[in-house]
Predict the structure.
Amino acid sequence: LDILEEYLEELEVDIHTNCPINANDIEHELNERMEPVFLIENENISLNASKIVVSTGGITYPSTGSTGDGYRIASKMNHTITDIKPGLVSFNVDDFLLRSLSGLTLSDVELSFKDKKKKVSVRGDALISHFGLTGPAVIDLSNLLIEKSKFTILDDNLNQKDDDEIENLELFTNKINIDFTPDMTEEDIKEQITKDTPDKGKMSIKNYMKKFLPANFIDYFLMKINISPSKTMANITKKDKNKIAENLKRHPIEIESLETELAKVTIGGIKSKEIDSKTLQSRFVDGLYFAGEVLEVAGPTGGYNLQIAFSTGYLAGQEAANSLK
Ligand SMILES: Cc1cc2nc3c(=O)[nH]c(=O)nc-3n(C[C@H](O)[C@H](O)[C@H](O)COP(=O)(O)OP(=O)(O)OC[C@H]3O[C@@H](n4cnc5c(N)ncnc54)[C@H](O)[C@@H]3O)c2cc1C
């Protein structure tokens, strides 16, 4: 921030903070020389500009100041706003016993959902929380799932819909699977159990499962598949073995809802096709540029969204400035 502020100071840029500008405050006209000009006026500010860059962010996580004004500004200038959805979210899961394991990390698992016959998956860490599931793999899977789901959280006036409507969003699917052993097949697991049984006949299945699962998750896992944790390896039946292997590879979880309040990014935005990708200038209005999350672009976790904001901000700023020379 200090570096950016130093640049602004050097370039003698006027900064107006706490000064929201909404769609009604902007008029686009031609001046007396027939050049396009934007008139910006409200109780806090009054200025004319030949170029503007709209970088007002998305609509999710409103405490950052982003409340969707950019969509309404773009729409006023005839741009299309694609379906707007919360992205990079956690999942609420209505399973008291799972949630009671809050704080437990499921390391290097594969999370997936079915899209017709195709498996859509993400590998990484998942975390059990007091509301359900979170962590990098969950958050990245949420984007893939939400992109496939057909809904928008905006009403016809491009304002956010009521909370209860957002709470009941219909997802492409509510069923996801956890694969606890992504490097082993179901057959590998069964063979491993068969191979280990003669030496470990007296060992409880609960103890043996430490080979595959975090210790604190085992009771929950065995309860879900109806196998007593005290059962010894010698007493494990073929049916038990099949159930264990199947559930290690495809442990089903039902998503109750999305934890939308903590959505880290907005999926959807100003339609990309209506913006020149080389300059980020509107194809409809000369002098109007867009940058950042307000655009129809969203990335996974790992800094991609900040990079999108930095790169598009740099490009739009350069292009707007160069076109004035
Ligand atoms: C909790 C959280 C964690 C995140 N973690 C990561 C991460 O680890 N990696 C990553 O890549 N991304 C992350 N993101 C996403 C990333 O921060 C955003 O994608 C990025 O900041 C978008 O930049 P932006 O400049 O387009 O919008 P924003 O950063 O949202 O900035 C928009 C600005 O415009 C202002 N504004 C809005 N409306 C108006 C108006 N009408 N008039 C004047 N000003 C207005 C807002 O006050 C705000 O200052 C995270 C987001 C959140 C919320």
